[in-house]
Amino acid sequence: MSAVTEKSITIALAGNPNSGKTTVFNNLTGTRQKVGNWPGVTVEKKEGTIRGFGHELVIVDLPGTYSLTPYSIEEIVARDFVLNESPDVVVDIIDASNLERSLYLAVQLREINCKVVFVLNMADLARRRGIKIDAQKLSELLDVPVVFTVGNKKEGMENLLKTAVELAESETPIVVNRRVRYSADIEDAIGKLQAEIQEHTTAAFPYHARWTAIKLLENDEVIRERVLEKLENGSRRILDTAERLRKQLTDQFNDEPEILLTDERFGFIAGIVKEVLTTTTQQRVDISRNIDLVLTNRFFGFPIFILFIWAMFQLTFTVGDYPKAWIESGVGLLSASLNAALSDSLFKELLLDGIIAGVGSVVVFLPNILLLFFCIALFEDTGYMARAAFLMDRVMHLIGLHGKSFIPMLMGFGCSVPAIMASRTLESEKDRILTILITPFMSCSARLPIYIVLAGTFFAAKAGTVIFSIYLLGIVMAVVSGRLFRSTLLRGQDAPFVMELPPYRIPMLKSLMIHMWDRGKMFLKKMGGVILVGSIVVWSLSAFPRNIEYSRDYDGQIHSISDYFEREIVAADPQRQKELAANLEAELSVLLAAKKAEIAEKSYMGRIGKGIEPVFAPIGIDWRGSIALMTGFVAKEIVVSTLGILYAVESRSAEALQHALKNSGMTVLSALSMMVFVLLYLPCLATVTTIRKETNSFKWTAFSIAYSTGIAWLAAFFVYQGGLLLGLG
Amino acid sequence: MKQIHQQEKEQFKQLFLQEKLDNFEDRYRILDVFLQIENHVTLEEFIGVLKDKGVDFEESFVKQTLDLMCYFGFAQQNRFNNGLVRYEHRHLGQHHDHMICIKCDRILEFEDSDMEALQIRISGRHGFHILQHKMELYGLCSQCFPKQQASISLVMAKQGQRLIIREFTGGTTTRVRLSAMGLRVGDEIEVITNSSKGQVVIAADRTRFALGRGLAEKIQVEAVQ
Fold first, then answer.
1. Contact call for residues A187 and A180 (beta carbons, < 8 A)
2. I need a surface site. Which of A146, A240, A542, A640 has the fewest CB within 10 A?
3. Which of B159, B195, B208 sits opposite A289 (nearest CB)?
4. A378-393: per-residue pLDDT in tens?
5. Which of A293, A183, A341 is nearest to A249 (CA)?
6. Residue A653 scores a pLDDT above 50
């Protein structure tokens, strides 16, 4: 093979949802894209480049789609890539155990002008079910290369690449026969429309005439618009002809043409399946079906689901507490030894009060985060995610959404960014925007440290329950807000809900670990990046200016008091000496605390904090809390860092943040109020950016920010003032 | 019945002779055959019956006679819902009501004395004197009705039932979409879960689907025999 004429070959992976495209993609490219056992894991096309067979191979993983008639954004992404980017080869990943349905997309791919390779994936599973597919015959019948693979065992990958590259290199034109032949009347209509299109077509028109004709007969909106756009002059004629032919066919067959064409394709497929498929020993026990009998049961399903969610949080908090304590003591040890080793300097302050106090107070939550993502990965990999969507359908109906919207919401417990992306699987635009608006109320993992710090400090043994209630409050607020939006801003019917429930699979430990570790890595990267920088900024603002004007002469007072007591002590008897020493100690600490408080208040940070304090005072949060909440816009973890720095500065000791908080005058009520505020207020920068991108609207983004912050303030106000009224302060 | 026919023939003879109509004997033979038929016939069907009885006349003559009979009130034309003109004989002083099957176009006659009495009472209340009345009930006959009943909406199905998809009553988009996902008319499915609110999980072969209520309502199914 000559590497001289190196040409880049684009290979697109297409196929039904959950047919294993991403697994194949990961195998081919050696990457670790997220794989999950539910339809809609991949909502965006992903690219990976490898070298092989003397070429640069660009592999593109597309979102799953059932047909070339798209209904949701991810399906449009898939179709548009195949149609508009003209990849050199389209590899259609077929779930071998579900041949008939997979062929529906496959025969449609044969209808457009592209080179196709069929991959019969999960071949082992099909064999176990007693399904035998004659690949040779399938290849002959449709005139396409066919290869077998087993994605999760990496079998057949080399062969797949080789076949794809050979096909891309081959000069033979794309075979046009062996396509679906429709019945005479339909072929006649296609022919007429095709002629009309060919007459008016221009070089700018990207699609094949026959395929365009078929799609116009099927009343495909996107293609109609494309025709109007690209074929200005002829478009009216073409669309009129299409409309006329559609009417004619409808009259003749008493059914819409799109149904006729679909039926005929399936007829064609039935013929192929009969030829190539033999089922032998039917293994009748369908384990997944039996599991579904229990997990989707009308009585047990929902309680089991709640139990799972509860177990997830319990595991996160209780089990996570042990490794968290280890890391905590590690951080404490580091801090103490640095304190002893370094002599007083600005650098030492930065290191101890800034970086270690800031980053150290967040990094201890790594185990909790890992566990939470482990649980979410468990939901995703087993296939339970889709069942959760089904079970929540009833609840989601209260909002006028359907169960599919719950998948983004559940993912929101992890991180809002991928969660908002996941809303792409929703077909109705209004449903999608609604889901995007309420997903941030699902408490993301970055807020978890804040709850653990606050609840752990003020609620002790009841912390787990309090945090679980905060999460529930998030769900309730999501539902209430959704209901509100549905009846005001985003009126509309909920779209029909249909979702395939994938078979249950035993998750591979390796895959779970990868999920978890990827998340852990992201978390640690954040620590080394935005949290580190944030900590330094927060510390600097709170440590400067150095030369402030004190309201009174602290040093002088300290001096005179010390002098006074020292003289007294010398003069007193031993019994009285001890008493005096204690008094001195007490008076000095009062003065020192007052001095430090003044330093903090007169620092830049203190001035900013005092400035915004009036806004937060009604909800029981002091200026330090206000600052912490403000910094949380960058990333929610910074809230804890900021608290760590601001309180550490004051107490200047190695004691944990929890102690400092308790001594700072914060009450149980203001802690609760702060948690509620954190739960609901504006999402982090990354999420806001994602909302902007996914809604494609500044208006909705601004609305989301304003609404969530407003609701957060109101809810916290009710909690705090209500609590005060009830005498809980 | 025989007696009534005899009576009608006499009335007919009297009227025709009064009006001095021609070909009385021929017309009388047509009437005779017509009165023997108890169902509703089209012109073509009636000519066929006449031929079977050995009575052979021009079509126009037969039509003219039938029209005359209608004119005098011995017969009446009826256009049921499929639009073809059918003739039936009209028992003067007597009548019957019809039930018309919209599926197979079968026509059933019925009489009910309670109904008649009720009609007289009602019209009496309005000071109305009934000369004639006509009642047509449209619906499904006993042969067509069971087919309708057996097909139910998927929301009504019970857990564990094995069903065959008979029809999608939703829009075209939904139907095409479900087809692409692997749910088509004629497919056998099993109900795994049917929550009381209408959310349904079904299994088709080894694929399972969760359906919302709105969609499940639009799927007509029939129990597997």
1. no
2. A240
3. B208
4. 888 898 988 998 888 8
5. A183
6. no
